[in-house]
Design brief:
It contains twelve helices and 22 strands. The chain is of the alpha+beta class and 477 residues long. Strand 10 and strand 11 form a beta hairpin. Helix 1 runs parallel beside helix 5 and helix 2 packs across helix 8.
């Protein structure tokens, strides 16, 4: 079969584009080189919904960030993806930093962001008592928020698949051939998929995909950001996302609650040679701790439960690249989507569809399109009455597998069965939070493996942590 649209990359951008395209009478296929969705920057970022004050006015970033915030809140609600409007504070430490903050305020007004205000350090501390005494001026950004990026990606792709979109995982693009009426895309394993239009949403690999298609018109600069995630005992240190005045390297080290009640600190911003360099370093983590303590001195870093590194894509022009190829007919680049890409993801998808229409794609709306996704029935969020009803209907909900995060067997079995299905331990973790708690899967992992084995009819020894040979068991004794 020849699809109408092929999308390379099943991160939050490719996934949201697939979801927005699924409302039309089109055949769409999403191609992902890893064994699951949300395996790149979409699983390792700050999860911040940026308010729109930072992008330079009259850039694509500024436009789509301003448009994207409310669109994201609306769509995340439809998909039951965890999201919360907690607002953000951008802090100046002393008179020398205050002009930069005032410039951000003016930039936000130019971008059309409503509700921004400059408040004194004392007023900010009256609302955030843990904020450093050194903070003298704060940009208050009430429209900002926090979201779970990988759950959003899973939900968007699941909704797209429920509406007919095909997903091919373990499909690493190795060759792209331009044919008379479209493209033939071949994987490293020799599988071939054909489509009339090709959309390059490959994140840090977008320049390589462009080159395979015959249009190396930009170069992605991968930047690594190291983070530390703290236990829920630290989650109430602040209610807002706390930023420092940004630098040329990025928005700086933040301190933020997460939608799940933890505290997140980071990221650094280091240029790396490859998107695969996701190691953490003693130097990077020390920088995160030191600068986070500058904003919120009381953070107890003995409560760190995990650290990680995410690599985001940037480009020397400093703006999103969402444009048709100038040399390859039918190819659309959606590249260099660094911050605020997550905040803008729905607006980016809508803008990409506008570009596809301009390239000749016909979009006729489906009569039976379903924009919503069933609630994942998070057991930890249910009332006692709801828990009782679920257990009576399905006794698997009465067995708690992950004690740290109160995740039931019923939720895990559902995650393995519904689109896009979880195939490995980390896939279950991203969908249900089983293994996300203080013990990091020390207690629940064996039972999660057993459930994957049962649901997929595979031996326990073949269950992996994150695909591609990451086996946990050597065999039976």
């Amino acid at each position: 079969m020849k699809y109408d649209v092929l999308i390379v990359g099943a991160g939050v951008i490719g996934g949201m584009l697939a979801r927005q395209l699924s409302r039309y009478e089109l055949s769409v296929c999403l191609l992902e080189k890893e064994g699951d969705v949300a395996m790149g920057a979409s699983k390792a970022n700050s999860g911040i919904v940026h308010g729109g004050y930072d992008p330079v006015p009259d850039t694509l970033k500024a436009r789509l960030n301003a448009e994207g915030v409310e669109k994201l809140f609306e769509v995340a609600g439809m998909l039951h993806a965890p999201i919360r409007r907690n607002g953000s504070f951008v802090c100046a430490f002393g008179k020398e930093e205050e002009p930069a903050l005032q410039e951000l305020y003016k930039r936000g007004l130019a971008n059309g962001i409503k509700g921004l205000s400059l408040i004194s350090g004392d007023e900010a501390r009256s609302r955030e008592p843990m904020l450093s005494e050194s903070v003298t001026l704060v940009l208050d950004v009430p429209n900002a928020g926090i979201v779970c990026p990988y759950e959003l990606t899973v939900a968007a792709i699941g909704n797209a698949m429920d509406n007919g979109v095909a997903l091919r995982t373990d499909f690493e693009v190795a060759a792209i051939l331009r044919e008379n009426d479209g493209f033939c895309v071949t994987s490293a394993a020799g599988e071939a998929v054909r489509g009339r239009y090709l959309v390059n949403c490959a994140g840090c690999y977008a320049d390589r995909v462009a080159e395979l298609a015959g249009d190396r018109c930009f170069e992605i600069v991968p930047r690594a950001g190291e983070y530390m995630l703290l236990d829920k005992t630290e989650g109430m240190r602040v209610s807002h996302t706390i930023f420092q005045v940004p630098t040329k390297a990025g928005k700086g080290i933040l301190v933020s609650p997460t939608v799940d009640g933890n505290l997140l600190t980071g990221p650094t911003a280091t240029k790396v040679d490859s998107p695969d360099l996701t190691v953490t370093t003693p130097e990077g983590l020390e920088t995160v701790a030191r600068l986070a303590a500058k904003s919120v001195p009381s953070v107890n870093f003995r409560q760190v439960i995990t650290s990680f590194t995410g690599v985001r894509s940037s480009e020397k022009r400093g703006d999103f690249i969402i444009e048709p190829s100038g040399v390859v007919k039918g190819l659309l680049h959606v590249a260099a989507i660094d911050s605020p890409g997550l905040s803008s993801c729905v607006a980016i998808a809508d803008y990409a569809i506008e570009q596809l229409r301009g390239m000749g794609l016909s979009t006729v709306e489906k009569k039976d399109w379903c924009p919503t996704r069933e609630n994942p029935h998070r057991f930890r969020e249910m009332s006692d009455e709801e828990k009782d009803a679920f257990i009576k209907a399905n006794p698997a909900y009465g067995k708690i597998v992950c004690r740290c995060e109160t995740v039931s067997e019923g939720e895990i079995r559902d995650a393995i069965r519904r689109n896009p299905p979880a195939r490995d331990i980390d896939g279950v973790k991203r969908r249900t939070r089983s293994g996300m708690g203080r013990c990091q899967g020390g207690f629940c992992m064996p039972y999660v493996m057993k459930l994957i084995s049962e649901e997929n009819g595979q031996p326990m020894e073949s269950v992996t942590k994150k695909g591609k040979g990451s086996y946990q068991l050597m065999g039976k004794l």
